[in-house]
Write a structure and sequence with these properties.
Strand order of the largest sheet: 1-2
Number of strands: 2
Low-confidence stretches: none
Shape: flat
Oligomer: single chain
Number of domains: 2
Largest sheet: 2 strands, antiparallel
Amino acid sequence: MKHSHIDEYSYRDSFIHRLDPRTKLIATLLFILVVISTPVVQWQTFTLYVLLIALLIFLAKLPFPYVFKRSLVIIPFVLLIAVSIPFLKPGEVVGSYNLWLWQVSVTYDGLYVFLNVLVKAWLSILSLIVLTSTTKLADLLKGLEHLRVPRVMIMILSFMYRYIFVLEDEVMRMRQARDARNFGGSRLWHIRTLGNMIGTLFIRSYERGERIYAAMLSRGYDGQSETLHRLSFKPADAYFGASFTSVLILAGMFTLLH
């Protein structure tokens, strides 16, 4: 079955692709921290952030439609968390609306907070998309290991990404088998069938995990992330790190001055 891998474009060759994973990890974390710390009213600064991300996408030779489409995945989560803020935040009222038996009011402060969450979440996910689209997963995990991220977290990320597609295929086969045997039935019957599928998937996943773990131990697995080449900082990493940090510092100074 066809799957959408997060590192689908990581095998391309560009300046960003050739950077050390640790450089990209630190730059991404720094960018997210700076974005979160910038007030949303500083629209000039956020314009600079968008241009900076667009430049990285261009240098990485990533398709802009692909990056934009993937970045929209954050919108439902933001709406789920922050959609009620414009109605609950006290402040100057923008407008009032009648919903059935309730009258709700939208405030400027609420819209400000909602916009703050939406813009910062979108820019953060854009930076993460650039990171994962230009770095092979094995190299990314190796970089996290070198940065002293707890090994158990790296193992969880590794196994989750490696076997999520196996579980997805398992779900699709179970669904196909259900549809082949489905001759109707009530809503309650469909709910019971779905519950049985979830339970069966859990048992199969647990059993598969035990077999895989035993097989890995028999082959000498020690929890280390292995790659075909060693990670090493190059002059390009230093130039990129210095330039990227300088831009973020200038953006921060601009924010403080305004």
